[in-house]
Design brief:
Number of strands: 13
Number of domains: 2
Shape: globular
Structural class: mainly beta
Radius of gyration: 17 Å
Strand content: over 45%
Helix content: under 10%
Number of helices: 0
CATH architecture of the largest domain: Clam
Largest sheet: 6 strands, mixed, barrel
CATH class of the largest domain: Mainly Beta
Length: 207
């Protein structure tokens, strides 16, 4: 039976990540590469969080620094499964996984070309965490006609997205120490011996 499950705290994914209507599209990093690891840093409405990120095609694993606070305790890991349209919160102390429906709020941007992109202007050479990058001014439009502008930093050699900053709201996402490599299957599965419960996610009191 489904039950309410409240996701709280500053490290909550919902609302931190890039919201987009096309969340069923495959995850990709640049061109022809869909498996990598990186240090993830993101910010929304003045709140900043860090995590280790592992991506394998249509799924990714986020190991939170500080964890995600829930009614049942802290989840140290979130596994986003686009193929199952679910997000799994792993609560190691309870040996439990709480599964909630996937929404667009959980999506991270990986592709250099942004969804709904209508304009891209090269600003010039730049740096992100000591990595050489090309800086772009990019504009997007959603299906309702709303526009948003971004600054985007791209690794020119690997065509990897390194940083994306909204010019219209207090939001950014950054990837550091990006390593393109094959990721183990078990990173994206429910740990052995863990009990999975299905739940409906309630809105966070922190917005």
């Amino acid at each position: 039976m489904s039950q309410p499950f409240l996701i709280m705290g500053l490290a909550c994914l919902a609302g931190f990540l890039l919201s987009t209507d096309g969340w069923t599209q495959p995850v990709e990093l640049g061109v022809g590469s869909a498996e990598f690891s990186a240090r993830l840093i993101w910010k929304h409405d003045g709140r900043k969080a860090k995590a280790q990120l592992f991506v394998k095609q249509d799924r990714y694993r986020i190991e939170h620094m500080g964890g995600v606070k829930t009614e049942l305790g802290y989840a140290g890991v979130s596994i986003v499964r686009l193929d199952e349209q679910k997000v799994w919160y792993v609560l190691s102390e309870r040996r439990m996984v709480v599964s909630v429906p996937l929404t667009s709020d959980y999506l991270l941007p990986f592709a250099v070309t942004l969804e709904g992109e209508t304009r891209r202007t090269l600003i010039g050479d730049s740096m992100v965490n000591n990595d050489a990058a090309l800086l772009y001014d990019v504009e997007t439009q959603d299906r309702f006609g709303n526009t948003e502008k971004y600054f985007e930093w791209v690794d020119p050699a690997r065509q990897v997205l390194l940083k994306l900053v909204s010019q219209d709201r207090d939001w950014f996402v950054q990837y550091e120490h990006v390593v393109v490599s094959t990721q183990p299957e078990f990173y994206f599965e429910i740990p052995l011996g863990y009990r999975k419960i299905e739940a409906q996610e309630a809105p966070s009191p922190n917005g």
